[in-house]
Amino acid sequence: MPMTEKIPPEHLLQWYISAGVDETIGDLAVNHFEQRPETPRVSRQKPQNDPVLFQSAPQKSDALLTTTKTLSLAKQAFSLQELKEIIADFDECPLKKTATNMVFGAGNPQAQLMIIGEAPGAQEDLQGQPFVGPSGHLLDLMLHSVGLDRTEVYISNILPWRPPANRKPSESEIALFTPFIRRHIALIKPKVLLLLGGSAVSALMQTNAGITKIRGRWLTYTDEELTIDAIASFHPAFLLRTPAQKKLSWRDFLAVKKRLTA
Ligand code: URA
User: Fold this and answer.
1) Which of 100, 102, 103, 124 to mutate to test the pocket of ligand 1 (most atoms within 8 A of CB)?
2) Taking 60 as the threshold, does the pLDDT of residue 41 lie above it?
3) Beta-ladder partners of 227
4) Number of neighbouring beta carbons within 10 Å of residue 109
5) Ligand 1 proximity of 105 Cβ (cutoff 6 Å)
């Protein structure tokens, strides 16, 4: 279709939905291809009136101090309920101020498979549950495709709070919350860990390899006396944007199923 042709708004909306856009920031779909008259460039000033939303990531030394704190807090949790309360009471992360609900984890705490994503999205933030938006719907389909469902898995994320506008979590935010998810894993003690996306891999595995390189390979997650088989796969949000990669993810899910039944 030529770029200048009028695209009906409902088609644009469908296109956004299929691309995984799960939040509206206006009532009308905008056609960004439409040619508009040139407007003079105005330098964009950082808004001064919302210190929380526009707060910069903590400086490295501050981040190190708070991460030391989350490390010692995480060690104080001896049950899922204690861990949930400790995270809920932890106020030293600005994400808590912009999020609606904390997303701790959900599913079967006795599950042999623990799935770890990146951070809550819009729907998860509203409902306080992991993977309940479009990514969650795709995750359900992928689990079903290998004969699994939510009663057989436990699901959580590296971050319990939604980053504003679904931005990617910063390295210091990931480092800050990693002790909590490590404790979460130690409390669930699954047989297999499935890491969805690069953030989960970089938080939990000692590797700089990107997700495309590392997905589908069996890895070993260790923590004190724990040793767990782990495998990384693409994040469902990525698959919604890049459906051609679903076939690789399906292989990863089949490998998980095989390892669970071995
Ligand atoms: N993406 C994630 O990584 N986690 C969720 O819970 C939802 C979307």
Assistant:
1) 124
2) no
3) 222
4) 14
5) no
Q: How many whole angstroms separate alpha carbon 131 and alpha carbon 239?
A: 14
Structure tokens at 20: 């995984």
**pLDDT (mean) for 140-145:** 98
User: pTM (2 decimals)?
Assistant: 0.79
CATH number for the domain spanning 249: value is: 3.40.470.10
Residue 77 is assigned to a structural domain of this protein: yes
What does pLDDT average to over the chain?
86
Least Cα distance to 186 among 43, 83, 46 occurs for 83
Tell me which residue range forms the domain holding 83: 60-260
- Structural domains of the chain, count: 1
Q: Is residue 149 part of a domain?
A: yes
Residue with token string 């499935």:
194
**Could you tell me which residues come within 8 angstroms of residue 35 by beta carbon, excluding any fewer than 6 positions away?**
3, 4
Q: For residue 203, is it within any domain?
A: yes
Substitution site in 157, 234, 235 for ligand 1 pocket (most atoms within 8 Å of beta carbon): 157
Ligand 1 close to Cβ of residue 120 (< 6 A): yes
* 49 part of a folded domain: no
